[in-house]
Amino acid sequence: MVTHSDSKLKLLRLLQAKSVFYGDFLLSSGAKSSYYIDCRLTTLDPEGAWLIGEVMYDLIKTEAKGQGHPVDGVGGLTMGADPISLAVSMQSFKDNPGRPLNCFVVRKSPKAHGQTKLIEGNFKKGDRVVVIDDVVTTGESTLKAIQAVEDAGGVVAFVAVLVDRQQGGRENIEKHCKVISAFKRDELIDPARAHQTADRVAA
């Protein structure tokens, strides 16, 4: 029987193999880094999506139960959150087809035609939701999603992220709501390789 810990270990190994790169990188925050985490190579991988659905859904289900309040949906700022949200939603249907978690997408800007929505998918005013992100660095994209949900009349129960880069983003978000994560940077990154790369770039 496959357990949650088995799935989490498999997902960790997959992230390390597919999504961690060492070199000289410029992050969206403007900061330089000797490593880069590209979760989309895992979240858009068939096995990765399956494992993420299991691991993140279990994480969310446990936190919601601990808070004593059910949640209605999951979603976040496109596009990092999109495959994770869908994987979680599908896993929730498998676990509880009578009350699955709806999936929604927060656009970076409102649609210019049609219903001019900022939030797409199965979200409605009054929903209690979990905001998703793949990697949190400064927390800026997650905070945008939180603002969009609240402006649309939703309630953010908490934030669930796949990887916390441990660079202050979690703390920024937690000024507004709780953050839970499946993994932290220190679990994914080989510090020796990161330091070697940084030293080589500096030289």
Describe this structure in words.
This protein is α/β, with parallel strands linked by helices. The protein has helices spanning about 5-20, 40-45, 45-65, 80-95, 140-150, 170-175, 185-190, 190-200, and strands spanning about 20-25, 30-35, 75, 100-105, 120, 130-135, 155-165, 180-185. The chain has a single domain, classed as Rossmann fold (3-Layer(aba) Sandwich), CATH 3.40.50. It is about 45% helix and about 25% strand. The strands form 2 sheets. It has a 6-stranded mixed beta sheet with strand order 5-4-3-6-7-8, sandwiched between helices. A two-stranded antiparallel ribbon has the order 1-2. β7, α6 (about 170-175) and β8 form a beta-alpha-beta unit. The radius of gyration is 17 Å and the shape is globular.
> Helix-strand pattern, N to C?
HEEHHEHEEEHEHEHH
Main pleated sheet: 6 strands, mixed
Q: What is the total number of structural domains?
A: 1
Strand order of the largest sheet: 5-4-3-6-7-8
Specify the number of helices. Answer: 8
Morphology call: globular
Question: Remind me, CATH topology?
Answer: Rossmann fold
- Rg is 17 Å
Q: Which range does the strand content fall in?
A: 25-35%
Q: Quick one: how many beta strands?
A: 8
Q: Average pLDDT across residues? A: 91
What level of helicity do the residues show?
A: 40-55%
Question: Which runs of at least 5 residues are low in confidence (pLDDT < 50)?
Answer: none
